[in-house]
Amino acid sequence: xxxxxxxxxxxxxxxxxxxxxxxxxxxxxxxxxxxxxxxxxxxxxxxxxxxxxxxxxxxxxxxxxxxxxxxxxxxxxxxxxxxxxxxxxxxxxxxxxxxxxxxxxxxxxxxxxxxxxxxxxxxxxxxxxxxxxxxxxxxxxxxxxxxxxxxxxxxxxxxxxxxxxxxxxxxxxxxx
Length: 176
Ligand SMILES: CC(C)(COP(=O)(O)OP(=O)(O)OC[C@H]1O[C@@H](n2cnc3c(N)ncnc32)[C@H](O)[C@@H]1OP(=O)(O)O)[C@@H](O)C(=O)NCCC(=O)NCCS
Hints:
The structure is a single chain. The chain is an alpha+beta fold. It has a single domain (6-173), classed as 3-Layer(aba) Sandwich (Aminopeptidase), CATH 3.40.630. Helices cover 22% and strands 31% of the residues. Strands 1, 2, 3, 4, 5, 6, 7, 8 and 9 form a 9-stranded mixed sheet that branches. The longest helix has 15 residues, at 91-105. The N and C termini lie far apart (32 Å). The chain binds coenzyme A. Coenzyme A (COA) is lined by residues 25-26, 80-82, 87-93, 115-116, 118-119. Coenzyme A binds at residues 25-26, 80-82, 87-93, 115-116, 118-119.
């Protein structure tokens, strides 16, 4: 674990480093269009970077969303990337945990994610059956749609997750 890891909100000066991180972490997926769209309007959520050795080692974005007919503050965790030389050192875990803490402090009670359950279950996420993703998921991604309630008094929601335009692209919700 890197002793000097610093987690903070990203600024415009981090954009180039964040954009160069994604192709390295995801060589087979082009996440840059959605990453750019999110960073162009960061106020739609929270953009965090993990700085190690003065480098942007990891990035995560949490987008504010709504669940139809449910009045709790909700966020979508995506994307998350750790640059290859810093993977498997606990940085992704620390970054997500830090983000969840910050979200809870601002009153967010539900966080959804579409990702590998083997990874996200370690961070407290569980399979989500009541809140539906914005687009129907292919059968092979069953179990990849997960959520986590923050705090003890969050009431369970049911309904479709409503996402801002940056996430309203069907291809973002299906295998490449
Ligand atoms: C997936 C990712 C965000 C994890 O961040 P990280 O800082 O490397 O992971 P951490 O050090 O916090 O946690 C490591 C543990 O997570 C698990 N893990 C790491 N990458 C994983 C992956 N792609 N899928 C499932 N589990 C994974 C492993 O169990 C690992 O523990 P181990 O090293 O003891 O086996 C990061 O590796 C990454 O950006 N990878 C490239 C993109 C990718 O694979 N995305 C899929 C996301 S589900």
